[in-house]
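Here is one chain, start to finish.
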Amino acid sequence: MSFLQKASLKKRIKRSMRMIEEIEHKRERSQAALVSAILTNTTPDDRDVDYFNTYTNQINELRDSMQKTQDELDGL
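Its structure:
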């Protein structure tokens, strides 16, 4: 049973890592728009700010979940 639990936890960690990569890719466009606004000293589009914040929150939640899963795996 322990082997199956470890395998399942490892699979969850890998899935979380893939999801983080996908979300980071989505976040890149809004991040680029925000950096551009900063460099040109203009106000960024609210949608870009919202996208960036939403994706960042999703990434943080996934990382927290992944860390808990890793802690659980380390405890086995």
